[in-house]
Amino acid sequence: MDELTKKITERLESLRVHLQADGGDLEIVAIEGKTVKLKLQGACGGCPHAAMTIKGGLERILREEIDPEIVIERVI
């Protein structure tokens, strides 16, 4: 696991508690360079705000804290 993948994984793991508090969760499907493929689960999987959670929340945090070129793609 390269350093970028490790940082992304660790940060997403730390953010899972917020999704779990709302009855949801996330699964890291793949990390390919700066593209992260995530699957939202539980209550988050069918939530109409899922896209906002990914782009406005998770992606924004990863871009601010790790690398501004990180992109999260939602896997359904």
In short:
With 76 residues, this protein is an alpha+beta fold.
Summed over residues and divided by their number, the pLDDT gives a mean of 93
User: What oligomeric arrangement do these chains adopt?
Assistant: single chain
Count the domains: 1
CATH structural architecture? 2-Layer Sandwich
CATH class: Alpha Beta
Net shape = globular
Would you mind describing this structure in some detail?
The model has no long low-confidence stretch (mean pLDDT 93). Helix content is 46%, strand content 28%. It has one domain (3-74): GMP Synthetase, Chain A, domain 3 (2-Layer Sandwich), CATH 3.30.300.130. It has a 3-stranded mixed sheet, covered by helices on one side. It is α+β, with helices and mostly antiparallel strands and 76 residues long. It has helices at residues 3-21, 50-65; strands at 24-32, 35-42, 71-74.
Topology of helices and strands:
Layout (H helix, E strand, L loop, with lengths): L2 H19 L2 E9 L2 E8 L7 H16 L5 E4 L2
Parallel strand pairs: 2-3
Antiparallel strand pairs: 1-2
